[in-house]
Amino acid sequence: MNRVVIIFLMVLQAAQLLAQQPLPKLQSTLKKSLDKVETYIDSSTVKNMDLVYVEEPERPWAVELRTDANETTMKMHNDFDFADGTHGGINSTSSNGFSMSLGAWVGYRGYGFGWSKELTGGDGSTFSLSASGRSYGVNFRIRSYNSNMPEFMTSTENPIRVRSLFLDGYYLFNSKRFSYAAAYDQSLIQRLSAGTPLVGAMYHHSRVNYTDGSNWDWAYYMRGVSKVKFTQVSVGAGYAYNWVPAHGWLFSILAMPMLTFYNRTSLYYDNTVAETPTEEYTTPNKLTWNFNARAAVVYNWPRFYLRVYGYFNRFNYGTDDVWGHLYDWKVYAALGFRF
């Protein structure tokens, strides 16, 4: 984490000088600052690592073309009482379906960003930032799509809008021999098999919007719920293992159950379709759990690499009356070029 702070301060200093000095000096100062950042990253990437187990590629930059299959599914259950005193419930599901997307990623020594656009399944996109160092990995992504595959009494004319933000990070205890970067961005290469216990944290915020007029029947039978927002913070512990069966190959798996200690759900009601006691209700905090898993298969050439990678997240949300699950998974193939 200190490495990230130092890099940020260097960049901030360069930006301040940029606003104070003439252009030629600014260009020189900015170049020197960027050179310092690169030198620091290069010198610290494999610091204190066992180079028998981990190798640093000679070329620091990488760009990759990605194609993936993905699906995000939200399930919601609503309990209610009928006028005669009997109790009932109704289930609903919205999803982007089995979707394919195409995108790209570019990075330097484990720091990079990517963007992908869905080609089928829901007019969505994903923007991501990632950073992987010697003993940590951090991922940030914003995911949006329109669910054109609702499962309910009738099909909607206009899709349900879903927006999600994810931020997760990991700390590795055996960072001397195990490399997270070797499995998930190829800024390092694992030469011999190694595993590590790890701890992690995750922030998750999603919005699901049913407010389009054509979705009136959905909102009506969900007791007037027209929009749902939920925010969660989780911590967990797990294990990761990099298996190297032959030169150039890597099989990696990471599994981590997580405790969600902050879990708030906001329900927004539309009184035009159902009689509700309030227009907005935020649930009390409710402890729950989720699960985070990752896996990758990698093959490295001197300048190219091929990676097949996937992740799975399961989130629980809601109250005693309105509750549900969000399932989020993606499997993609990436062809990368180092330069």
Features:
56% strand, two-stranded antiparallel ribbon, elongated, mainly beta, 339 residues
| Helix and strand run | HHEEEEEEEEHEEHEEEEEE
Mean pLDDT: 79
Query: What is the first-to-last residue Cα distance?
Result: 26 Å
Structural class: mainly beta
Q: Gyration radius, to the nearest Å?
A: 23 Å
Describe the structure.
With 339 residues, the protein is mainly beta. 15% of the residues lie in helices and 56% in strands. It has helices spanning 2-18, 23-44, 180-184, 216-221; strands spanning 54-55, 61-81, 87-95, 99-108, 111-118, 125-132, 136-147, 160-172, 189-190, 194-209, 225-243, 249-269, 280-282, 288-300, 304-318, 322-338. The strands form 2 sheets. The chain has a 12-stranded antiparallel barrel with strand order 2-4-5-6-7-8-10-11-12-14-15-16. A two-stranded antiparallel ribbon has the order 1-9. Helix 1 packs antiparallel against helix 2 (23-44). The longest helix has 22 residues, at 23-44. The protein is elongated. The relative contact order is 0.15. The mean pLDDT is 79.
Question: Can you describe this structure in just a few lines?
Answer:
The chain is mainly β and 339 residues long. The protein has helices at 2-18, 23-44, 180-184, 216-221, and strands spanning 54-55, 61-81, 87-95, 99-108, 111-118, 125-132, 136-147, 160-172, 189-190, 194-209, 225-243, 249-269, 280-282, 288-300, 304-318, 322-338.
